[in-house]
Amino acid sequence: MPAETHVERGPLDRQAVFELVRDQLADILETDPAKITEGASFSEDLDADSLALIELVEALEEELGERTVGFRIDDEDLEDLRTVRDAVDYVVAKLGAG
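The structure assignment produced for this chain is given below.
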């Protein structure tokens, strides 16, 4: 994917948000993105600890902050994000509300 597409300010659809979360998580966990599904639990299926989730949040805030000014994932919401689907739904909702 050319780098220019990341600079695009167009809205992200749900699939694009999933791909972003999946790719960031794959980098952080040093695993194959194909192993990361929406139904995967961060702790049970992916062995992601709280530090990995914090890294994911920071990566998403950095990436999405370029598209949506002030995009943030609230610390108190982190405990509700148990699966990849939770994270995707959360980001989609935040982007829609923003």
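Interim note for the steering committee: The radius of gyration is 13 Å. Residues 14-29 form the longest helix (16 residues).
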